[in-house]
Amino acid sequence: MARRVFSGIQPTGNVHIGNYLGAIRNWVALQDKYDSLFCIVDFHAITLAYDPNQIYDRILDVAATNLAVGLNPEKVTLFVQSSVPEHTELTWYLTCLTSLGSLERMTQFKDKSARQKGNIFAGLMNYPVLQTADIILYKADLVPVGDDQIQHLELAREITRRFNTTFGEIFPEPQPLLTSGARVMALNDPTSKMSKSIEGSCISLDEKPESIRKKIRRAVTDPGPQGGEMGPGVKNLFLLLEAFTEPDVYRQFKTDYANEQLRYSDLKHTIGEGIVEHLTPIRERRAELLAKPDYLKDVLMAGGDRARIEAQETLKQVREVMGFKFPVS
Ligand code: TRP
User: Fold this and answer.
1) Ligand 1 mean position, distance from CA 236 (Å)
2) Lower Cβ count inside 10 Å, N or C end of the chain?
């Protein structure tokens, strides 16, 4: 039987090419090889202040993006976390097996709580416990994650081990499936990550061709090869070149760079056209899908139905080994 993959994505609107290359595109690549569940994690989205009036549309937006880039809902289970309440039940059980110290040590928690202006709520700290529940609820073997999630996955493994040694071996210990490709950096500041909140730093999946070309033209480079070391801006451009053009184009530009014959204006032109060509069909399919919200909702509900059956089965087992003998129904 194919091994099982689980991954989650936050329902933040306005996905950019960094998210696309770092996560979304990889999901599509996995769907033929693994038994995959992909979850839009709205319960995670509420760990920071959010707008209840926007979350539904954002979920549909993420679903449209994933389908537009090629995720096939017949092959994968694409669903919304809140349509399977077992995620929260299992989270509570796991919360009781997770040490406070390990949660406080999570760098993402430290970063997010440092940025948080008002109160810091317990949900933010428990974020990785919910993430663990997501994964083991479906007994997933593999979790495709970017390097920013490695620490969370390590903790997930630790919590899973603790469950297994305390109550019996019922869960596989999930392994990371490191998504390939380096992280895409901001176009206007290649020392920090591409971010949708900084104007000029990113290209969204919906970006119009003219705007794509302009942002690439303005991307930070460097004065030229310096002791064979590529500057961070040029490195980032080569990453985009590799992602959005054919391998022989990439090789040619690499050779030109090595021979000090590369013109950054040519490089930028080629990248700009490559991105435009790649994103245009995605933008069009996204628009078509977003015009059919009922279809998107149906896809997610069908996925939710499939996921829920498995989640209920797991919870039955969990309740049994944990000693809860009063049946749910
Ligand atoms: N925390 C992940 C992120 O921000 C999203 C996520 C939630 C996730 N649950 C998950 C990823 C389970 C992998 C597995 O990217």
Assistant:
1) 25
2) C
DSSP string, 261-326: ---HHHHHHHHHHHHHHHHHHHHHHHHHHHT-HHHHHHHHHHHHHHHHHHHHHHHHHHHHHHT--S
> What is the C-alpha to C-alpha distance for residues 169 and 185, in angstroms, rounded to an integer?
41
Task: Please answer whether residues 121 and 112 qualify as being in contact, where contact means their C-beta atoms are separated by less than 8 angstroms.
Answer: no
Give all domains of the chain, ordered by start, each with its CATH number: 4-181+293-322 (3.40.50.620), 209-288 (1.10.240.10)
Average confidence (pLDDT) over 40-65 = 96
Provide mean pLDDT across the span 55-60.
Answer: 97
Q: How far apart are the first and last CA of the chain?
A: 32
Pocket test for ligand 1, best of 149, 157, 196 (most atoms within 8 A of CB): 149
Residue among 25, 127, 15 at smallest CA distance from 60:
15
Q: How confident is the model at residue 156 (pLDDT cuts 50, 70, 90)?
A: very high
User: What's the pLDDT at 225?
Assistant: 65
Is the pLDDT assigned to residue 236 strictly greater than 90?
A: yes
161 exposure class (CB count in 10 Å sphere: 0-12, 13-18, 19+): middle
pTM > 0.70: yes or no:
yes
**155: its two tokens:** 């903790």
The residue among 71, 82, 231, 93 whose CA lies nearest residue 164 is 93
DSSP letter for 24, please. Answer: I
Alpha-carbon gap, residue 62 to 9, rounded angstroms: 8
Please state, in angstroms and rounded to a whole number, the distance separating the CA atoms of residues 260 and 277: 28
Tell me how crowded residue 277 is: count the other CB atoms within 10 A of its CB.
12
Tokens for 289?
């899908």
Asked whether 145 lines ligand 1 (CB < 6 A), one says: yes
The number of the ligand 1 atom at minimal distance from the alpha carbon of 144 is 13
239 SS3 class: helix
